[in-house]
Design brief:
Elements (H helix, E strand, L loop, with lengths): L1 H15 L13 H23 L5 H8 L3 H17 L1 H11 L1 H21 L3 H15 L2 H12 L5 H18 L2 H10 L1 H22 L15 H4 L6 H9 L2 H31 L5 H29 L3 H20 L4 H15 L2 H10 L6 H8 L1 H20 L5 E2 L2 E2 L3 H21 L13
């Protein structure tokens, strides 16, 4: 009787397209599955850490490389240049190489880039290090999702995706007060050198522990046949088709303002702004920008779930973008006490988590066969925001610089920061004007 039941279960799994190992031990235990996925998540954490790390070392970087705000913004943005460029090919490479090899290679290159940045004798080499870091850690998110589809049951996929964002924010928080304390004690170069060494150790751990599929460790796989039988059509044709939808363009451009403002403030210019305009010490300023990132992470799943509950995407996207714009206008222009500034930043970060609505909106706006391409294209929006706004704000700061320096690092007044941050507000205004023209999907997949 039990044999018949097992046979029926096996037929059911085969019908669902689940890969079974003839010498199976069942599905992998949770501890094994999460440890495999967790190593990929650690590379994503390192990537987010490297993304915002320059914010707490702006003075040191300006002094060491004899640069102003424009060059500093460009140095930080070199991470985004390669990260954005890698978004489309990463999915294709992941399919061909598998997550294990891709994550290992990514961690190795990230370690090399970090070491190059830490030992850079001049700005040219530092830019090269940041470029390598951005290109290498760009593989982490897609690889994590691919591992999740093989190692976890379908109903756990959303949990793994949400925890991925949490891991990223943890990296951002580590790059705040903890990183600043280490830099004050040891200097930025030794700390970045240790970061390179730890990333190298992660590469070894990934190669030894991670496997593309549970079958490689004699477990059953949760992957469905659809994952292994992809139709490889023309990439260019698929992208052209996705870009023929109006919503794709709107949902690609909108996060440039919304997420770009968060990445520009928390990722580079918020700490020096809070120090130079509001008189805070670096650790306190870093703590505030970390709180902004945490609020941003919390806002994503909350607003995504609320959108699902409402059964609409566009109205909530419009109102939260309007709230984000209002919040940044208060931060930039209103003479408010520091406690109210912190509250405003928290609310602004929370509503800026609406990029999760945008991802779902974009996926639903195209036929199911184009979801992956649409997600890859629209995922470039937030990154483009950091890539464009960080150096642009720096350029405006230099243009409004009055010549003041402290210890060889340039100091900018409130008017300079208001002019620079006005670019963030301008991009948000464009985003707010565009969203009403998006076609509502009513949370239903386009056919």
């Amino acid at each position: 009787m039990r044999r018949l039941a097992d046979s029926g279960l096996q037929r059911h799994r085969l019908h669902r397209g689940v890969r079974l190992n003839p010498n199976r031990r069942g599905y992998p235990p949770a501890a094994v599955a999460w440890s495999v996925w967790g190593l990929g998540a650690l590379l994503y954490l390192i990537g987010f850490y490297q993304r915002v790390a320059p914010a707490v070392m702006t003075d040191q970087l300006m002094i060491d490389f004899s640069i102003g705000a424009a060059e500093l913004g460009n140095l930080s943005a070199f991470y985004f240049y390669s990260y954005v460029a890698m978004q489309i090919p990463t999915g294709l490479i992941a399919d061909r190489w598998g997550p294990r090899r891709l994550l290992t290679a990514g961690a190795i290159v990230a370690a090399i880039g970090s070491a190059l940045f830490a030992s850079a004798p001049d700005l040219w080499w530092a830019n090269g290090g940041r470029l390598l870091i951005g290109a290498s850690v760009a593989v982490a998110f897609v690889s994590m999702l691919k591992l999740a589809s093989h190692w976890f049951a379908p109903q756990q996929f959303a949990l793994a995706s949400g925890l991925a964002l949490v891991c990223g924010v943890v990296g951002g928080v580590i790059a705040g007060v903890p990183l600043r304390m280490l830099i004050e004690a040891w200097g930025w170069r030794p700390v970045m050198g240790v970061s390179a060494a730890l990333t190298g150790l992660l590469a070894i751990a990934i190669w030894l522990r991670v496997r593309d599929d549970p079958v490689d460790l004699a477990y059953d796989s949760h992957a469905h046949a659809a994952h292994g039988s992809r139709q490889h059509g023309s990439i260019v044709r698929g992208m052209a088709e996705v870009l023929s939808y109006r919503n794709t363009w709107i949902l690609l451009i909108t996060p440039i303002g919304v997420a770009g403002a968060v990445l520009t403030f928390a990722g580079l210019w918020g700490v020096p702004y809070l120090r130079q305009v509001h008189g805070l010490d670096t650790k306190t300023a870093a703590a505030i920008t970390s709180l902004l990132l945490i609020a941003w992470a919390v806002g994503g799943p909350v607003l995504g779930a609320l959108s699902e509950r409402l059964g609409r995407r566009r109205p909530l996207y419009v109102w939260t973008t309007a709230a984000a714009l209002a919040g940044w206008l208060v931060v930039i222009f209103a003479p408010i006490p520091i406690w109210l500034l912190i509250v405003t930043l928290l609310i602004t970060g929370l509503v800026s988590g609406n990029l999760i609505i945008g991802f779902a909106f974009a996926k639903e706006s195209v036929p199911a066969r184009l979801m992956g391409t649409a997600s890859g294209i629209c995922n470039m929006g937030p990154l483009l925001g950091g890539m464009l706004l960080q150096p642009a704000v720096g350029w405006v700061l230099d243009d409004h610089w009055l010549g003041a320096t402290v210890g060889g690092a340039r100091v900018y007044d409130a008017a300079a920061y208001q002019a620079g941050f006005s670019l963030m507000a301008g991009c948000l205004l464009v985003s707010l004007c565009l969203i009403p023209f998006a076609k509502e999907t009513a949370c239903q997949q386009s056919s």
